[in-house]
Amino acid sequence: MELLPLLQQFVLLFLLLCCSFSSVFPRSHELGILLEVKESLIAGGESLSDWNRSNPNFCKWSGVTCRSGRVVSGLNLSDSSLTGSIPPALGRLQNLLHLDLSSNALTGPIPTTLANLSVLESLLLFTNDLTGRIPAQLGSIKTLRVVKIGNNWLAGEIPASLGNLPNLVTLGLASCTLTGPIPPQLGRLGKLDQLVLQDNQLYGPIPPELGNCSSLTVLALSNNKLNGTIPPELGRLQNLQYLNLLNNSLTGEIPRQIGDMTQLSYINFMGNQLHGPIPRELTKLGSLYNLDLSENKLTGEVPEEIGNCSSLQAADFFGNHFSGKIPATIGRLQRLSFLHWRQNELVGEIPVELGNCTQLTTLDLADNFLSGGIPETFGSLRYLEQLMLYNNSLQGPLPDSLSNLRNLTRINLSTNKFNGSISPLCSSSSFLSFDVTDNSFSGEVPPQLGNSRSLERLRLGNNRFTGELPRTLGKIRALSLLDISGNSLTGVLPAQLALCKNLTHIDLNDNRLAGSIPAWLGTLPLLGELKLSRNQFSGPLPPELFKCSNLMLLYLDGNSLNGTLPSEIGNLEVLNFLRLDHNQFSGHIPPALGNLSKQLELRMSHNSFSGEIPAELGRLQQLQIILDLSYNNLTGSIPPSIGKLSTLEALDLSHNQLQGRVPPQVGEIRSLGYFNVSFNRLEGDLGDRFQRWKADSFLGNSKLCGGPLDQCRRSANKHSSLSEAAIVVLSAITTLAALALLGLGLTFFCKRRREYLRARSDVSCIYSSSKSSHAHRRPLFLNPGSMKREFRWDDIMEATNHLGDEFVIGSGGSGTIYRAELRNGDTVAVKKVPWKDELMFNKSFAREVKTLGRIRHRHLVKLMGYCCNRGAGFNLLIYDYMENGSLWDWLHRQPGVNNKRKQCLDWEVRMQIALGLVRGVEYLHHDCVPIILHRDIKSSNVLLDSDMEAHLGDFGLAKSVVEFYDTTSTTESNSLFAGSYGYIAPGSLTLLSSLFPNFWVFFQLSV
């Protein structure tokens, strides 16, 4: 029995020892859990370096917090460079109150074992790379107050079970990839203070149940796919201060209940599809400092009551349809610093009261319909940094008070109607961008602009500036873009601009700048665009220019530059656009152009380049927009390598002296929409590859055939000249062909003569005459179904200076012929047929109208229309214009308007003319019913088009066979001479007599 007290004392002593050890060393099972957590994580740097068994007092480990020195209550490992996944073992720390693993690089899912932390109050896992879904089991931790697990790669829907957390104050799930609707169950969170769900892919409507979260101060739902209307129930959130619904698909009107949120200080509805007006209740929010309604479809006028929002600092209404005037009450907003009402439909003048908003730093009223001028009161906006008024109808000079705006960094007044000087704007020395393009500003460019050393973009284009470029611009070392195009600047480019080494764009197009292209341009290492078009620059190009290795666009067209094109141009390897047209360059096109492999556009027309087209141009595989070498003196053949330009859309080689065949490879460029090789010396068969282009693309190449042109004729002699024997043989063949044609005509005539005698002409001549020379002359058309152009008397009189002698190009048997260039660019031939008497009118004018009005043949001159005016004393016939004049001019080598008439006709062309004439006469004698007899075929009536094809004209003496044999006709007078001496056949009018002059023309062609 004595041992019992001793045993009790021993047990008591043992318990005391255990308690003393437990107070020094916490429970060993939590030590093991923490070490297991460390094993699952990969720590960077010194993180978790003190987590080891040699230091068993884990309550002193970094990031570990213990309660009562016995159990782990907090674990804060944020921003510890941790990788790996969240250890499931953390779920065994059952006394844990706070878990913070934020701002690491943790991956994998959120372990469901965290739901075992039954007393957990805060869970912070944001800013990691976590994936998977949010565990629905987290809804069972009733003690949770803060859940912030955003900025991860979490997916799936928001668990409705989170609505079971009665103590939840903050729910942050922003910047994940969450989908699905917002759970209405979140409306049960009566203590919720912040709901942050922005930057996800949530869709569906905003639950009206959120209006039950009476403690809510922050509601952030921006950058989702929410639709539907803004619930009016949100108006019950009396404590709400921050409401952000930006960039969703919300529709409908802004509910007036928003005005009941008396504590609201921030509203952002940007980037939705809201419509309707701004509710006036919104203007009752006295605490509102930010109101962003931009990029919606809101309409109506801005309410005058907006002046009651006395705390307003930023008002952004950009990109809506607000109309009406800017309310003058805006001037009561003394704290306003940001006013952005661009791209609306505001009208009227800018209110002078706006000058009372002296705290303004940004004022943007661009893209509206504002009128009037800039108020003088703007001089009070001394803190203004950005002034954007472009794309309005503002006008007048700038007020001098603008010189007080010394803090301006960005200004844009472009596309208005301002005039006068821009000097009042140039007081600031802090400009970053300065844009006044498309106005009527005048005077010289202010030298003060050079004081803004940080100016990057200077745009003064399309104004009326005069004088020289100020040398002070050279002080703007940050300048990257200089655009003063479309003005009247004179002088030379100042050498001081060479100091602006950051220049990437120079646009001085359409001025009066002169002198040579300066060599210092080659010292600008970043220059990417140089536009000097349509100035008065002269002289050769400096070789230094081609040191600009970053140059992508070079426009020098429309100047007086001369000399040869240096081969150094091939050094511009990144050049995309090159325009050298309309200058005076000469010499050969350098083959080095083939090095410009990134070229998209190449224009070199209207110069004096000579020599051959370099085959190296075929290496420009990216050339797409156009290759234009027209109007030069290029010779040789078209290189087949041009056919390698597989993306080319336009090719113009016209008006040169190119020879040989058109390479078939060119016709295989599928992208080629515009093709022009007219007025060269090309020859040969085009074949089917060129069928898709009109004949106009090949004009002025008499030896071209096939494709859209006439089919090629076989020739036994392919030499350029013929021997005398060959000439004799050809003459004999021509004569025999003519005689054969005569026999054929006689046979055909005899066969059908009786039928013709019974027929009557159904041709009628309809014309109108004005009894007064001042009467209106309306156009008359012969074949309305085929006419596409109208001709008016006054237009023709204007085009020919009232039929002045300087426009005369010939005369026919019944009138004088004039050349007329009409306003629309068409060139026509106009025959003046005088009114000698009524009989002469009927016999000549009416006959030509009747005859040509019903015939259509490619070898007969086409009558396009006629105008009659008895009061003027003459009538007009309008024909197709024949560029190469008459056959008589060519046979007698008479120089005319076209210098090509000085050339000789080779035998191939003579045969072509003869065949064309035969085909035309054959049509008149055999295909017309009744037969048409020309009666005046001679070389002066055989007209030649640009391809030297024959067209028979002057039908003033023509007559149908039926008309001739009509014995009842009283209009024929035997006393009237019909025909030209030397051409008319002896005897009476017959089919044979009509063929006699045709034979005479053949004889002239053969000698």
From TrEMBL:
Residues 1-26 form the signal peptide. Keywords: ATP-binding, Cell membrane, Glycoprotein, Kinase, Leucine-rich repeat, Membrane, Nucleotide-binding, Receptor, Repeat, Serine/threonine-protein kinase, Signal, Transferase, Transmembrane, Transmembrane helix. Its EC number is 2.7.11.1. One of its GO terms (molecular function) is protein serine/threonine kinase activity. The chain crosses the membrane at residues 725-750. Residues 803-1007 form the Protein kinase domain. It catalyses: L-seryl-[protein] + ATP = O-phospho-L-seryl-[protein] + ADP + H(+); L-threonyl-[protein] + ATP = O-phospho-L-threonyl-[protein] + ADP + H(+). It is found in: Cell membrane. It is a single-pass type I membrane protein. It comes from the Eukaryota. InterPro entries: Kinase-like_dom_sf, Leu-rich_rpt, Leu-rich_rpt_typical-subtyp, LRR_dom_sf, LRR_N_plant-typ, LRR_R13L4/SHOC2-like, Plant_receptor-like_S/T_kinase, Prot_kinase_dom. One of its GO terms (cellular component) is plasma membrane. ATP binds at residue 832. SMART domains: LRR_TYP, S_TKc. Belongs to the protein kinase superfamily. Ser/Thr protein kinase family. Belongs to the RLP family. This is non-specific serine/threonine protein kinase.
